Amino acid sequence: MPDPTASYEGDDLDDLPPPQPVHYAEQALLGALLLEPHRLDTIGHLEPHHFGNHAHNALFTAIRTVSSPDPKQHVKDTAWLGAVLAKARHEAPGLTASYLHTLIQSCPRPQHATAYAGMIRADHARRTLREHADRLCQTATDTTLPSPATTVLAQADALSRYLDELTTHFAAHPGSLPRTPASPPPPRQTGEEALDEEHLLLATATAHPDDLHLMRWLQPEDFALPLHGQLYRCLTALARRGDAVDPVTVLWEAQHQQLLTAQVTPADLMALVSDPVGLPDYWGERILRRALLGQAHAVGLRLGVLTDDQANTIHQLITGSRRALAGLSAVRSRWQHATSPTPESQPSRTKSSAAPRAGPPRTTAPPPPTARLTRLTANPPVAGPLGPATGRKSTSW
After folding, report:
1. CA distances to 30, 72, 112 from 109, in Å
2. Where is pLDDT greater, at 4 or 213?
3. Cα angle at 284 between 280 and 289, to 5 degrees?
4. Which of 290, 368, 390, 392 has the greatest count of CB atoms below 10 A from its CB?
């Protein structure tokens, strides 16, 4: 029976793609359970939706629903098989008795039912990871969302929770790194809006360099255009050294960083850091949000490549997915730092509110406040020849 979950477009039935290996694992498990229904208690946690084939899903549901027969009676007649088939036909009308016999013949060894169930669970985990990856890509590129960063991070959290769930079912073991080579990162969005925002950030940062030390959450790699990121690096270097910051000094620093080329002239660079509008942190947050969405899109694409590679085991998929999410977590922490409210500064402790120091008790009482006044009136400061009564001799120039 061909796998209905495999995507196929065309009218020629001779060109149907061959079934995937998990299709034979599903057949072998169902055949084992049809032969020896008592093995249902030995296969561990397995749900009908773990099956990729709808007909197999319906059959497994029926096997779990119909009461198990007496083993001795099951050998003699096919009453239980008929009850399972009738139950499954409610969801899969195309099932036939001959296909049940095909399933029984497809099972090499019924005692290996636990291994077959493990294969089905692993392939279901692969398909579910792919679904998470597709949703992450779709969310990261959806321009209609009112709060795209929040939605993307929620989807990433859902993916992380699913990986935690998989870890409880599939214990990690050495050599679990995926063998799939890393694909190049997707091209960054370099539309007119993104480039304008980066230009305004560079211009406002040049006009307000004192704000740069508060924007350490923004990194040069967050910029869509590498040239803009390198110019931002020049700005932060000048501010960190305490040097003067203006379009000319930025141009001088850019020259030392070898940013001037035949295509990028000094006038072009000075234009990029001129004409400020707004404040740097506003444009910086917009750039960082775009970088966050781009990183989430790259994570989704990477997970799609990993899950498409059938050579990767479920352990390798878990490890590879966590490594991909680590890059998103780094950008996420900077995003949270940029958008979190600034904590209120604690009032400094005054001298009167300071805790008293431990020490020996006083032997004499402190002089009253009028004592110092009495001493001052008894011995007033003597005025100098040309200066006020300060108690010091004035110097004549």
Report:
1. 12, 19, 6
2. 213
3. 160
4. 290
Of the candidates 52, 73, 60, the one whose C-alpha atom is nearest the C-alpha of residue 32 is: 60
Position 177 scores a pLDDT of 82
DSSP three-state, residue 95: coil
Return the pLDDT at 31. Answer: 97
For the range 254-258, what are the long-range contacts, defined as Cβ-Cβ under 8 Å and sequence gap of 24 or more?
254/230, 257/230, 257/233
Q: Residue 123: name the closest of 321, 325, 317, 305 by CA.
A: 317
Contacts of 333 (CB under 8 A, 6+ apart): none
Q: In this predicted model, what pLDDT tens digit does every residue of 33-53 receive, in sequence order? A: 999 999 999 999 999 999 999
Q: What are phi and psi of 84, to 5 degrees?
A: -65, -45
Position 305 scores a pLDDT of: 94
- Of 340, 121, 133, the C-alpha closest to 217 is 340
Helix axes 97-105, 21-35, angle to 10 degrees: 100
Tell me the one-letter amino acid at 249.
Answer: T
Judge contact between 32 and 113, C-beta under 8 A.
yes
Listed in sequence order, the residues at least 6 apart from 320 whose beta carbon sits closer than 8 Å to its beta carbon are: 177, 178, 180, 302, 303, 306, 312
Mean pLDDT of the chain: 85
Report the C-alpha gap between 176 and 104 in whole angstroms. Answer: 34
Considering only CA atoms, give the Rg of the chain.
37
Cα 63 to chain centroid distance, Å, stands at 40
Residue 312 has pLDDT above 80, yes or no: yes
Contacts made by residues 141-144, CB under 8 angstroms, sequence distance 24+: 141/293, 141/297
Tokens coding 41: 């208690």
Q: Distance between CA 267 and CA 274 in Å, rounded?
A: 11
Torsions phi, psi for 174 (to 5 deg): -60, 150
Mean pLDDT for the stretch of residues 258-281: 93
Q: How confident is the model at residue 1 (pLDDT cuts 50, 70, 90)?
A: very low
Taking only the tens place, the pLDDT of each residue in 68-94 is: 998 888 888 899 999 999 999 999 999
The one-character DSSP state at 96 is -
